[in-house]
Amino acid sequence: MDRNTVDWRGYIPAITTPFDQDGALSTAKIVELIEWLLAEGMHGIIVAGSTGEWFSLDRESRSQLFRTVGETVKSKIPAIAGCSDFNAKSVINNAMLAKETGFDGILVTPPPYMVPSPRELLNFYKEVNAASPLPICIYNWPPGTNVDMPVSLLTQLAELDKVVAIKQSTGNFRLFLDTFFALKDKVRVFGIPANEIGASLVMNHNADGLMGAAAVLGRDHPDFFNRLWEGKLDEALTLGAKDRRLMQDWFNHDYTAKFGSSAAVFKEALNVQGLPGGYPRKPLLPVLPEHREAICATLEALGKKLDHGSA
User: Fold this and answer.
1) Above 90 in pLDDT, residue 26?
2) Which of 19, 208, 259, 273 could bridge across to 291 with cysteines, CB 3.0–4.6 Å?
3) How far is the CA of 135 from the CAs of 58, 85, 163, 221, 311, in angstroms?
4) What 8-state DSSP symbol labels residue 148?
5) Among 29, 162, 167, 267, the one annotated catalytic
6) 128 HSE (CA, 13 A, CB side)
7) Is the pTM of this model over 0.85?
8) What is the CA angle 102-48-262, rounded to 5?
9) Residue 224 has pLDDT above 70, yes or no
10) Is 139 noted as a catalytic residue in this protein?
11) CA 242, CA 7: separation in Å to the nearest integer?
12) Do the beta carbons of residue 127 and residue 164 sit within 8 Å?
């Protein structure tokens, strides 16, 4: 396998997982959310990623989530399952479930909390690679793992036969660029910014796209890439500026949220538009009222119609 094994490109959001107020998984809201994302023209989706609160999913709720998404997407767009966990055996079990429920690939971070060394990470991914039934996207996510994988390690990981992509979510843009130019001919490298630099990478270097978060602006996100592929740079940059406004208002340089958790922020952004965001699962909590007001202010500035009666 390599980058040509899969057709992943464009805007592929890591979506939220809707929970009810009591913490139960809401399959009805999952279906509603997926149907909305399909109608808004997403180029793919990722479930049970960081934004999807994978760390809150037990085996039963993960199975329910994967089955509901698989049955709803029905191969209309690429579906990638977040399979991160604390050890290779658990990741592999999640990957087996993803294959069984109709996913096209898996997304895997380094094991969180323990801060493995490069040697340990290489061994971890080798174990996952040997047993995974699906193509693998390596996910470099320093805020959640306390590891910012260097290009030297990512180059070794890109040689594993089932690794087809890297989601490079470092706050170090130089590291992203070094990763992209070192590995773009071997694997798909996601994480381009929705600005002039990102546009140049797409139009001049065939950059693959962005595995962004939550898609709360609907089709504005995938249309950034659609317009670039059509050669309409000015239109693309206008759309990209909306994505950057969200990041500026709600997030820090390293992609951590300025208030609450990222999952809570994005769920509230969906809820206030009358979309099925739901609640975060404890220990995460909904955003505070003043933060809800800030989220609404940003969305209204971007021309989004809000449902002021939403909870």
Assistant:
1) yes
2) 259
3) 23, 17, 6, 25, 39
4) -
5) 167
6) 33
7) yes
8) 150
9) yes
10) yes
11) 26
12) no
